Amino acid sequence: MSFKLGLTGSIGMGKSTTAGLFAEEGAEIWDADAAVHRLYAAGGAAVAPIAEAFPEALADGAVSRDALRRIIATRPEALKIIEGIVHPLVRADRDAFADKSRAEITVYDIPLLFETGAQSEMDMTACVYVPYEEQRRRVLERGTMSAADFEHILDKQMPIQDKLDRADFTIRTTDLETARADVHTVLEEIRKRL
């Protein structure tokens, strides 16, 4: 049975990069966002139930994230319905991955780890962190959202301090060397326990 480390953080804090550092050290990675992409793709398990609830969310046989955003913006109840469809499917995808994992340590990259209660299925948890100013700079530098969009996402997420307080480990992602050193420390600590 593989050791399960839940990895979380907030938008723009370097979670994907950190997951890559764990992979370099031999951990297997399951990515919640990638699972959602698979579920929304043509033939994915979320397509039919979302089409039933929101036919306008489909484009070319797949779920359109842009259409979902528009639906959620105009219909406050839509988010709960979508989560009710998607969260169990994501969990099933994660469980199937866990059943196949043969790595000593598996890292579960889950943005909403604490919000969805998924931390209860992990052996330990880690949260990536950079100060707010750096986080904001990184997100806006991508050019994919406005400052208002960024603040709107932050308002919907659990405050980073709450995540840090709940996590077993903090991984500082101010630069690659610091993040790599923190990842190494986390893995050493886990391997001691194993």
UniProtKB/TrEMBL annotation:
One of its GO terms (biological process) is coenzyme A biosynthetic process. CDD domains: DPCK. It is found in: Cytoplasm. Pathway: Cofactor biosynthesis; coenzyme A biosynthesis; CoA from (R)-pantothenate: step 5/5. Its EC number is 2.7.1.24. ATP binds at residues 12-17. Keywords: ATP-binding, Coenzyme A biosynthesis, Cytoplasm, Kinase, Nucleotide-binding, Transferase. Coiled coil: none annotated. InterPro entries: Depp_CoAkinase, P-loop_NTPase. Pfam families: CoaE (PF01121). One of its GO terms (molecular function) is ATP binding. GO terms for cellular component: cytoplasm. It catalyses: 3'-dephospho-CoA + ATP = ADP + CoA + H(+). Catalyzes the phosphorylation of the 3'-hydroxyl group of dephosphocoenzyme A to form coenzyme A. Belongs to the CoaE family. This is Dephospho-CoA kinase. The lineage of its organism: Bacteria, Pseudomonadati, Pseudomonadota, Alphaproteobacteria, Rhodobacterales.
